[in-house]
Amino acid sequence: KLLSENPLNAYFVALMTNDINADYGLGTLSDTAGENSFVGYMKNIIDTVHAHAPNAVIFLMSGYQNNNDIITQYSEMVKQLASLYSYCFYIDFINEAETILNESKYTAYGHYDSIGYIEVANDIERITEKCILDNVSYFKNFGLTN
Q: Which helix H or strand E contains 45, and what residues bound it?
């Protein structure tokens, strides 16, 4: 579907929750795009988005829980992945959000409820704005539209 749509200026990639239970492992930064690992699949997504929208910025999300060592490990890898690409930026939900999944009153059965997802959206917007301000030299001539 991505490739059939007009390119946008910004994309968010928020994967991980289901990936930690998949039959492939985390992988390493040396994995190639498409390799059977979380890193390989993430690199493939990044490369596909960049080929479709070469002027776009890609925001890579951390996980949503801060009490899970595996999610912390995957999130650290996402942070390292973001640093490999000049057009990728890490959104550190774990350390910067106010609505952490395991601490939120807006959860039900391991997921956010409707109000929780509104709070998550507000957190992501605030953290993204902070990321843009922290990287103003990159974004000063960049138009985030659509």
A: helix 38-52
Residue 38: the pLDDT is 96
Phi, psi (degrees; rounded to nearest 5) at 64: -115, 5
How far apart are alpha carbons 75 and 54 in whole angstroms? 25
- Annotate 14-39 with b (16+ C-beta within 10 A) or e (fewer): bbbbebbeeeeeebeeebeeebebbb
Secondary structure (H, E, C), 57-69: EEEEECCCCCCCH
Q: Which two tokens stand for residue 74?
A: 């995957």
Return the beta strands (E) in the chain as ranges.
Answer: 10-13, 57-61, 88-91, 107-108, 111-112
The pLDDT tens digits of the residues spanning 34-61 come to: 999 999 999 999 999 999 999 999 999 9
Length of the chain, in residues: 146
Q: What residue has token string 């390989």? A: 40
